[in-house]
Amino acid sequence: MESKNVIKVIVAIVLMIILGVLVFLTVKHVVAYREVKNLHSNLDKKEHKIKIGFSLGTLKEERWIKDRDIVMAKLRELGAEVLVQNANNDDQDQLKQVRYLLDQKIDVLIIVPNDLEKASYAVSLAQKEGVKVISYDRLVTKSNVDLYISFDNVKVGKLMAEYLVKKVPRGNYLIINGATTDNNTKMIKEGYDSVLKPRIESGDIKIVKEDWAPNWMTEYAFNSTDELLQKGVKIDAVIAGDDALAGGIIEALSEHRLAGKVLVAAQDADLAACQRIVEGTQAMTVYKPIDKLAEATAKMAMKLAKGEKLNVKNTIYDGKYYVPYYVLEPIAVDKTNIDDTVIKDGFHNRDEVYRNVSK
Protein backbone atom coordinates (compact mmCIF):
# COMPACT_ATOMS: atom_id res chain seq x y z
CA MET A 1 0.00 0.00 0.00
CA GLU A 2 2.74 2.38 0.93
CA SER A 3 4.61 1.69 -2.33
CA LYS A 4 1.40 2.40 -4.29
CA ASN A 5 0.92 5.71 -2.49
CA VAL A 6 4.53 6.67 -3.19
CA ILE A 7 4.02 5.91 -6.89
CA LYS A 8 0.86 8.03 -6.95
CA VAL A 9 2.70 10.93 -5.35
CA ILE A 10 5.56 10.62 -7.82
CA VAL A 11 3.15 10.48 -10.77
CA ALA A 12 1.29 13.55 -9.45
CA ILE A 13 4.55 15.45 -9.05
CA VAL A 14 5.67 14.51 -12.58
CA LEU A 15 2.30 15.57 -14.00
CA MET A 16 2.52 18.90 -12.16
CA ILE A 17 6.02 19.45 -13.49
CA ILE A 18 4.90 18.64 -17.04
CA LEU A 19 1.87 20.92 -16.66
CA GLY A 20 4.08 23.71 -15.32
CA VAL A 21 6.49 23.32 -18.22
CA LEU A 22 3.59 23.42 -20.69
CA VAL A 23 2.15 26.56 -19.05
CA PHE A 24 5.58 28.19 -19.07
CA LEU A 25 6.14 27.35 -22.73
CA THR A 26 2.65 28.61 -23.63
CA VAL A 27 3.13 31.92 -21.80
CA LYS A 28 6.57 32.31 -23.33
CA HIS A 29 5.14 31.67 -26.78
CA VAL A 30 2.32 34.21 -26.27
CA VAL A 31 4.76 36.86 -25.01
CA ALA A 32 7.10 36.18 -27.92
CA TYR A 33 4.18 36.38 -30.37
CA ARG A 34 3.06 39.71 -28.93
CA GLU A 35 6.59 41.07 -29.07
CA VAL A 36 6.91 40.06 -32.72
CA LYS A 37 3.48 41.50 -33.48
CA ASN A 38 4.37 44.80 -31.77
CA LEU A 39 7.67 44.86 -33.62
CA HIS A 40 5.90 44.45 -36.97
CA SER A 41 3.35 47.08 -35.97
CA ASN A 42 6.08 49.56 -35.05
CA LEU A 43 7.92 48.80 -38.28
CA ASP A 44 4.73 49.39 -40.25
CA LYS A 45 4.27 52.74 -38.51
CA LYS A 46 7.84 53.72 -39.27
CA GLU A 47 7.51 52.62 -42.88
CA HIS A 48 4.20 54.53 -43.40
CA LYS A 49 5.01 57.95 -44.77
CA ILE A 50 2.34 60.54 -44.13
CA LYS A 51 0.77 61.66 -47.39
CA ILE A 52 -0.84 65.10 -47.72
CA GLY A 53 -3.02 66.22 -50.63
CA PHE A 54 -3.06 69.95 -51.47
CA SER A 55 -5.93 71.06 -53.72
CA LEU A 56 -5.72 74.68 -54.91
CA GLY A 57 -8.60 76.47 -56.60
CA THR A 58 -6.19 78.55 -58.67
CA LEU A 59 -2.57 79.51 -59.21
CA LYS A 60 -3.44 82.57 -61.30
CA GLU A 61 -2.40 85.08 -58.66
CA GLU A 62 1.19 85.35 -57.47
CA ARG A 63 0.28 84.78 -53.84
CA TRP A 64 -1.12 81.27 -54.47
CA ILE A 65 2.14 80.21 -56.10
CA LYS A 66 3.91 81.35 -52.94
CA ASP A 67 1.41 79.44 -50.80
CA ARG A 68 1.92 76.26 -52.80
CA ASP A 69 5.71 76.43 -52.69
CA ILE A 70 5.99 77.28 -48.99
CA VAL A 71 3.38 74.74 -47.82
CA MET A 72 5.09 72.00 -49.84
CA ALA A 73 8.51 72.92 -48.44
CA LYS A 74 7.27 73.00 -44.83
CA LEU A 75 5.49 69.65 -45.12
CA ARG A 76 8.50 67.99 -46.70
CA GLU A 77 10.68 69.34 -43.88
CA LEU A 78 8.37 67.49 -41.49
CA GLY A 79 8.76 64.26 -43.48
CA ALA A 80 5.50 64.18 -45.40
CA GLU A 81 4.89 63.32 -49.02
CA VAL A 82 2.91 66.10 -50.75
CA LEU A 83 0.63 65.78 -53.78
CA VAL A 84 -0.53 69.07 -55.35
CA GLN A 85 -3.41 69.76 -57.74
CA ASN A 86 -4.48 73.07 -59.34
CA ALA A 87 -8.10 73.45 -60.51
CA ASN A 88 -7.56 76.62 -62.59
CA ASN A 89 -10.80 78.18 -61.29
CA ASP A 90 -12.87 75.17 -62.40
CA ASP A 91 -15.21 73.63 -59.82
CA GLN A 92 -15.58 70.31 -61.63
CA ASP A 93 -11.84 69.99 -62.12
CA GLN A 94 -11.31 70.55 -58.41
CA LEU A 95 -13.78 67.78 -57.60
CA LYS A 96 -12.02 65.40 -60.02
CA GLN A 97 -8.65 66.32 -58.54
CA VAL A 98 -9.85 65.69 -54.99
CA ARG A 99 -11.10 62.26 -56.10
CA TYR A 100 -7.64 61.60 -57.56
CA LEU A 101 -5.94 62.64 -54.31
CA LEU A 102 -8.23 60.34 -52.33
CA ASP A 103 -7.36 57.48 -54.68
CA GLN A 104 -3.72 58.07 -53.74
CA LYS A 105 -4.64 57.24 -50.11
CA ILE A 106 -3.80 60.63 -48.61
CA ASP A 107 -4.01 61.07 -44.85
CA VAL A 108 -5.02 64.75 -44.90
CA LEU A 109 -6.60 67.00 -47.54
CA ILE A 110 -5.65 70.68 -47.55
CA ILE A 111 -8.09 72.53 -49.79
CA VAL A 112 -8.30 76.08 -51.14
CA PRO A 113 -11.84 76.00 -52.54
CA ASN A 114 -12.60 77.59 -55.89
CA ASP A 115 -16.23 77.87 -54.80
CA LEU A 116 -17.06 78.07 -51.11
CA GLU A 117 -20.27 76.01 -51.50
CA LYS A 118 -19.54 73.62 -54.36
CA ALA A 119 -16.33 72.42 -52.71
CA SER A 120 -18.41 71.02 -49.85
CA TYR A 121 -19.13 67.88 -51.87
CA ALA A 122 -15.40 67.28 -52.34
CA VAL A 123 -14.97 67.66 -48.58
CA SER A 124 -17.76 65.15 -47.92
CA LEU A 125 -15.98 62.59 -50.12
CA ALA A 126 -12.82 63.00 -48.06
CA GLN A 127 -14.76 62.67 -44.82
CA LYS A 128 -16.37 59.42 -46.03
CA GLU A 129 -12.85 58.05 -46.60
CA GLY A 130 -11.83 59.06 -43.08
CA VAL A 131 -9.47 61.72 -44.44
CA LYS A 132 -9.03 64.83 -42.29
CA VAL A 133 -9.66 68.17 -44.03
CA ILE A 134 -8.03 71.58 -43.60
CA SER A 135 -9.73 74.52 -45.32
CA TYR A 136 -6.78 76.74 -46.24
CA ASP A 137 -7.29 80.53 -46.23
CA ARG A 138 -10.71 80.15 -47.88
CA LEU A 139 -13.51 78.54 -45.90
CA VAL A 140 -15.55 75.70 -47.39
CA THR A 141 -19.03 76.42 -46.05
CA LYS A 142 -21.47 73.98 -44.42
CA SER A 143 -18.87 71.22 -44.40
CA ASN A 144 -17.65 70.83 -40.82
CA VAL A 145 -13.97 70.72 -41.82
CA ASP A 146 -11.44 69.66 -39.18
CA LEU A 147 -9.71 73.05 -39.34
CA TYR A 148 -10.03 76.43 -41.04
CA ILE A 149 -6.74 78.32 -41.06
CA SER A 150 -6.47 81.87 -42.34
CA PHE A 151 -5.74 85.46 -41.51
CA ASP A 152 -8.33 87.63 -39.82
CA ASN A 153 -10.15 88.61 -43.01
CA VAL A 154 -12.57 90.94 -41.23
CA LYS A 155 -9.52 92.82 -40.00
CA VAL A 156 -8.13 92.88 -43.56
CA GLY A 157 -11.21 94.85 -44.61
CA LYS A 158 -10.92 97.14 -41.59
CA LEU A 159 -7.25 97.89 -42.25
CA MET A 160 -7.95 98.93 -45.83
CA ALA A 161 -10.89 101.16 -44.90
CA GLU A 162 -9.19 102.69 -41.84
CA TYR A 163 -6.16 103.61 -43.93
CA LEU A 164 -8.27 105.31 -46.58
CA VAL A 165 -10.58 107.25 -44.25
CA LYS A 166 -7.56 108.77 -42.53
CA LYS A 167 -6.22 109.95 -45.88
CA VAL A 168 -9.57 110.66 -47.56
CA PRO A 169 -12.15 111.35 -44.82
CA ARG A 170 -14.58 112.81 -47.37
CA GLY A 171 -15.19 111.89 -50.97
CA ASN A 172 -16.31 109.32 -53.51
CA TYR A 173 -15.29 105.70 -52.93
CA LEU A 174 -15.20 102.90 -55.48
CA ILE A 175 -15.24 99.32 -54.17
CA ILE A 176 -14.38 96.33 -56.35
CA ASN A 177 -14.60 93.12 -54.38
CA GLY A 178 -13.35 89.66 -55.28
CA ALA A 179 -15.52 86.72 -56.30
CA THR A 180 -18.84 86.15 -54.57
CA THR A 181 -17.93 82.45 -54.45
CA ASP A 182 -15.13 83.18 -51.96
CA ASN A 183 -16.14 83.48 -48.30
CA ASN A 184 -13.14 85.74 -47.64
CA THR A 185 -14.76 88.39 -49.83
CA LYS A 186 -17.76 88.48 -47.52
CA MET A 187 -15.56 88.72 -44.43
CA ILE A 188 -13.49 91.53 -45.94
CA LYS A 189 -16.70 93.39 -46.79
CA GLU A 190 -17.87 92.98 -43.20
CA GLY A 191 -14.63 94.62 -42.10
CA TYR A 192 -14.67 97.66 -44.37
CA ASP A 193 -18.42 98.14 -43.92
CA SER A 194 -17.92 98.50 -40.16
CA VAL A 195 -15.55 101.42 -40.80
CA LEU A 196 -17.33 103.08 -43.72
CA LYS A 197 -20.97 102.79 -42.61
CA PRO A 198 -20.94 105.66 -40.04
CA ARG A 199 -19.21 107.94 -42.57
CA ILE A 200 -21.65 106.98 -45.30
CA GLU A 201 -24.57 107.72 -42.99
CA SER A 202 -23.07 111.11 -42.09
CA GLY A 203 -22.70 111.96 -45.78
CA ASP A 204 -18.91 112.30 -45.63
CA ILE A 205 -18.33 109.30 -47.88
CA LYS A 206 -20.34 108.26 -50.92
CA ILE A 207 -20.00 104.82 -52.51
CA VAL A 208 -20.22 105.60 -56.24
CA LYS A 209 -20.02 101.93 -57.16
CA GLU A 210 -19.62 98.56 -55.46
CA ASP A 211 -18.82 95.66 -57.76
CA TRP A 212 -17.80 91.99 -57.57
CA ALA A 213 -15.18 90.55 -59.92
CA PRO A 214 -15.94 86.97 -61.08
CA ASN A 215 -12.97 84.68 -60.40
CA TRP A 216 -11.03 87.74 -59.19
CA MET A 217 -10.52 88.79 -62.83
CA THR A 218 -8.13 91.72 -63.30
CA GLU A 219 -9.74 92.55 -66.65
CA TYR A 220 -13.11 92.89 -64.97
CA ALA A 221 -11.70 95.37 -62.44
CA PHE A 222 -10.18 97.40 -65.28
CA ASN A 223 -13.44 97.51 -67.25
CA SER A 224 -15.56 98.31 -64.20
CA THR A 225 -13.31 101.25 -63.26
CA ASP A 226 -12.94 102.49 -66.83
CA GLU A 227 -16.70 102.42 -67.32
CA LEU A 228 -17.17 104.68 -64.31
CA LEU A 229 -14.46 107.10 -65.41
CA GLN A 230 -15.86 107.25 -68.94
CA LYS A 231 -19.10 108.54 -67.41
CA GLY A 232 -17.16 111.35 -65.75
CA VAL A 233 -17.68 110.08 -62.20
CA LYS A 234 -15.11 111.48 -59.77
CA ILE A 235 -13.27 108.87 -57.69
CA ASP A 236 -11.25 109.82 -54.61
CA ALA A 237 -10.43 106.40 -53.13
CA VAL A 238 -10.71 102.73 -54.04
CA ILE A 239 -10.96 99.52 -52.03
CA ALA A 240 -9.84 96.56 -54.15
CA GLY A 241 -10.46 92.93 -53.23
CA ASP A 242 -6.82 92.05 -53.80
CA ASP A 243 -3.64 93.38 -55.40
CA ALA A 244 -4.39 91.77 -58.76
CA LEU A 245 -7.69 93.66 -58.95
CA ALA A 246 -5.86 96.79 -57.81
CA GLY A 247 -3.55 96.34 -60.79
CA GLY A 248 -6.50 96.47 -63.20
CA ILE A 249 -8.01 99.45 -61.39
CA ILE A 250 -4.74 101.40 -61.45
CA GLU A 251 -4.28 100.62 -65.14
CA ALA A 252 -7.68 102.21 -65.81
CA LEU A 253 -6.80 105.20 -63.61
CA SER A 254 -3.52 105.56 -65.49
CA GLU A 255 -5.29 105.73 -68.84
CA HIS A 256 -7.28 108.66 -67.43
CA ARG A 257 -4.12 110.24 -65.96
CA LEU A 258 -5.32 109.61 -62.41
CA ALA A 259 -2.79 107.02 -61.21
CA GLY A 260 -1.32 108.24 -57.93
CA LYS A 261 -4.03 110.87 -57.54
CA VAL A 262 -6.68 108.36 -56.47
CA LEU A 263 -5.76 106.33 -53.38
CA VAL A 264 -6.04 102.57 -53.87
CA ALA A 265 -6.00 100.04 -51.01
CA ALA A 266 -5.79 96.27 -51.50
CA GLN A 267 -4.37 93.08 -49.97
CA ASP A 268 -1.76 90.30 -50.48
CA ALA A 269 1.47 92.31 -50.83
CA ASP A 270 2.14 90.95 -54.32
CA LEU A 271 5.46 92.07 -55.79
CA ALA A 272 3.74 94.23 -58.43
CA ALA A 273 1.67 95.90 -55.70
CA CYS A 274 4.73 96.58 -53.56
CA GLN A 275 6.41 98.11 -56.60
CA ARG A 276 3.36 100.32 -57.17
CA ILE A 277 3.44 101.40 -53.53
CA VAL A 278 7.03 102.65 -53.67
CA GLU A 279 6.30 104.20 -57.08
CA GLY A 280 3.27 106.02 -55.65
CA THR A 281 0.42 104.56 -57.72
CA GLN A 282 -0.99 102.28 -54.98
CA ALA A 283 -1.44 103.64 -51.48
CA MET A 284 -1.29 100.47 -49.39
CA THR A 285 -1.67 96.72 -49.24
CA VAL A 286 -2.48 94.34 -46.42
CA TYR A 287 0.47 92.00 -45.90
CA LYS A 288 -0.32 88.45 -44.83
CA PRO A 289 2.92 86.60 -43.94
CA ILE A 290 2.37 83.40 -45.91
CA ASP A 291 5.33 81.64 -44.31
CA LYS A 292 3.55 81.79 -40.93
CA LEU A 293 0.32 80.51 -42.48
CA ALA A 294 2.15 77.72 -44.30
CA GLU A 295 4.20 76.66 -41.29
CA ALA A 296 1.14 76.52 -39.04
CA THR A 297 -0.77 74.57 -41.69
CA ALA A 298 2.02 72.03 -42.10
CA LYS A 299 2.22 71.43 -38.35
CA MET A 300 -1.56 71.10 -38.03
CA ALA A 301 -1.74 68.70 -40.99
CA MET A 302 0.89 66.45 -39.44
CA LYS A 303 -0.97 66.45 -36.12
CA LEU A 304 -4.22 65.49 -37.82
CA ALA A 305 -2.46 62.72 -39.74
CA LYS A 306 -1.12 61.31 -36.48
CA GLY A 307 -4.47 61.59 -34.71
CA GLU A 308 -3.22 64.24 -32.31
CA LYS A 309 -5.32 67.03 -30.78
CA LEU A 310 -5.02 70.49 -32.36
CA ASN A 311 -5.80 72.68 -29.33
CA VAL A 312 -7.32 75.49 -31.41
CA LYS A 313 -9.29 77.93 -29.24
CA ASN A 314 -11.27 79.93 -31.83
CA THR A 315 -14.20 78.74 -33.91
CA ILE A 316 -15.99 80.13 -36.96
CA TYR A 317 -19.51 79.45 -38.19
CA ASP A 318 -19.46 77.87 -41.66
CA GLY A 319 -23.19 78.32 -42.23
CA LYS A 320 -24.10 75.08 -40.50
CA TYR A 321 -21.33 74.14 -38.06
CA TYR A 322 -18.86 75.86 -35.78
CA VAL A 323 -15.44 74.68 -36.90
CA PRO A 324 -11.97 75.18 -35.36
CA TYR A 325 -10.43 78.43 -36.65
CA TYR A 326 -6.70 79.14 -36.44
CA VAL A 327 -6.36 82.91 -36.90
CA LEU A 328 -3.29 84.89 -37.94
CA GLU A 329 -2.87 88.68 -37.87
CA PRO A 330 -2.59 90.74 -41.09
CA ILE A 331 -0.41 93.88 -41.34
CA ALA A 332 -1.15 97.19 -43.10
CA VAL A 333 1.77 98.17 -45.35
CA ASP A 334 2.49 101.41 -47.18
CA LYS A 335 5.56 103.34 -48.29
CA THR A 336 6.52 104.17 -44.68
CA ASN A 337 6.88 100.60 -43.38
CA ILE A 338 7.40 98.40 -46.44
CA ASP A 339 11.12 98.01 -45.66
CA ASP A 340 10.40 96.93 -42.07
CA THR A 341 7.75 94.37 -42.99
CA VAL A 342 7.61 92.82 -46.45
CA ILE A 343 11.30 93.31 -47.22
CA LYS A 344 12.65 92.61 -43.73
CA ASP A 345 10.72 89.32 -43.60
CA GLY A 346 12.23 88.28 -46.91
CA PHE A 347 8.79 88.12 -48.53
CA HIS A 348 10.21 90.20 -51.39
CA ASN A 349 13.72 91.27 -52.29
CA ARG A 350 14.41 94.99 -51.81
CA ASP A 351 16.03 95.40 -55.21
CA GLU A 352 12.96 93.88 -56.87
CA VAL A 353 10.56 96.11 -54.95
CA TYR A 354 12.49 99.29 -55.78
CA ARG A 355 13.42 98.20 -59.31
CA ASN A 356 11.50 101.02 -61.02
CA VAL A 357 12.39 103.74 -58.53
CA SER A 358 15.41 105.92 -59.29
CA LYS A 359 18.00 105.79 -56.51
Major sheet: size, sense and barrel closure? 7 strands, mixed
In whole angstroms, how far apart are the ends? 121 Å
**β-strand amount:** 15-25%
Mean pLDDT equals: 91
Q: What gyration radius follows from the Cα positions, in whole Å? A: 30 Å
Q: Architecture of the largest domain, CATH level 2?
A: 3-Layer(aba) Sandwich
Unreliable sequence segments? none
CATH secondary-structure class of the largest domain = Alpha Beta
Class per helix and strand makeup: alpha/beta
Write the element-wise H/E pattern from the N-terminal end onward.
Answer: HEHEHEHEEHEHEHEHEHEHEEEHH
Treating each run of at least 4 consecutive H or I residues as one helix, how many helices? 12
Number of domains: 2
Shape: elongated
The total of beta strands comes to 13
CATH superfamily of the largest domain: Response regulator
**CATH-derived topology of the largest domain:** Rossmann fold
- Based on the structure, what is the oligomeric state of the protein chains? single chain
Roughly what percent helix? Answer: 40-55%
Kindly report the spatial arrangement of strands forming the biggest sheet. 2-1-3-4-5-12-11
Notable traits:
alpha/beta, Rossmann fold, 13 strands
